[in-house]
Amino acid sequence: MAKKYDIVMKELVERDPAAWLELLGIKVEGPIGIINTDLSTFSLDADKILLLESSEPHLVHMEFQSTRDYELPERILRYNVIIGFAQKRYVQSFALLLHPRADFDELTGVVDHTIRGKRVLLFNYEVIRVWMLPVEPLLSGNIWVMPLAAAANAPVNDLPEIVHRVDSRLSSETDESTARIIMEMTLVLAGLRLDEATIQQFRKGLKSMTELKESSYYKLVHGEGLKEGLQKGRDEGLKKGREVGREEGREVGRDEGLKKGREEGREEGREEGLEKGKIAEARRILLRLAEVRFGKADASIRAAIDAIDNLDRLETMTERILTAQSWRELIDQSASDRN
């Protein structure tokens, strides 16, 4: 069901982006572009992204929600960051809640992260609760925003009149094809508050609804193209799944390799450290014992001993202290052993 409302809202925004930006309180100063929302490189699918070319070019990101999703604030934050990174623009994000059941206390327009009392992130987005919007400005405003009146602030008993006022405007202000599409969008959004049987009763008396079932839009919204849509979705999902799977596989592989490398590195480092420790101790013992027999070692002798990094050589030199007659003889014997 939620997908049906997404289709309607995305289509409405695409038909007249400027009208929707005005609804959000954004002044339009220049051209508006529609950005591809399927950012498959980053494995996300935002609802609608508009590019405003103005004195301060930026992006407007909209998420439409008809059901409760407690992860929505974090999802909007994630989309905002990824979209901004991908498009190299600042992003202004909006959550448009289509029904009270989509609302919850934590949906405040702020994501505030703290660690041990210190704020590490503060992100602001705007929340539009459609059921709180006044009906009259929507009914008298832009025709591509008008369907929202069916979900706006009016008693359920007023919906028949609202639907007929939409129908009347469309019949007099636009062509038949456009009127049929907008009227169907209005009825879809009315489905947020009314059951299908009641909506079907509305449909019979509307001027703009003749032959709508033949339109591709009706099939898209109501599922008559479900088979084709499912196959297309499977193909796209398979492609995206492979891409995501490869990336996840690389990530897992990197993590496993890093873990194994760390373990092996620690072990190698431990062994290397032990070996260096033994060599340093062997040098210390050699110097201490030899200085007792030959006197204090000068700088050249110490440099020669420090240059020896072979534990066996150092131990052999220590054993020869009793037979050697001088520091020089001890060093020279060690050098001849190496050669």
Q: Poorly predicted ranges (pLDDT <50, ≥5 residues)?
A: none
* First-to-last CA distance: 85 Å
| Basic shape | rod-shaped
Total strands: 9
Number of domains: 2
Which range does the strand content fall in? 5-15%
Strand order, sheet with most strands = 1-4-5-6-9
The chain-level mean pLDDT equals: 84
Helices, by number, come to 12
Helix content: 55-70%
- Biggest sheet statistics: 5 strands, mixed
Order of helices and strands: HHEEEEEHEEEEHHHHHHHHH
- The secondary-structure class comes to alpha/beta
Radius of gyration: 37 Å
Q: Could you describe the 3D structure shown?
A:
The chain is of the alpha/beta class and 339 residues long. The protein has twelve helices and nine strands. The chain folds into two domains: 2-228, no CATH class; 235-338, no CATH class. The chain has helices at residues 2-15, 17-23, 72-87, 135-140, 159-173, 176-190, 196-204, 216-222, 226-294, 299-306, 311-319, 327-338, and strands at 32-35, 38-39, 44-45, 48-52, 58-65, 91-97, 110-115, 118-124, 126-129. The protein has a five-stranded mixed sheet, with helices on both faces. A two-stranded antiparallel ribbon has the order 2-3. Strands 7-8 form a two-stranded antiparallel sheet. Helix 5 (159-173) packs antiparallel against helix 6 (176-190), helix 9 runs parallel beside helix 11 (311-319) and helix 11 crosses helix 12 (327-338). The N and C termini lie far apart (85 Å).
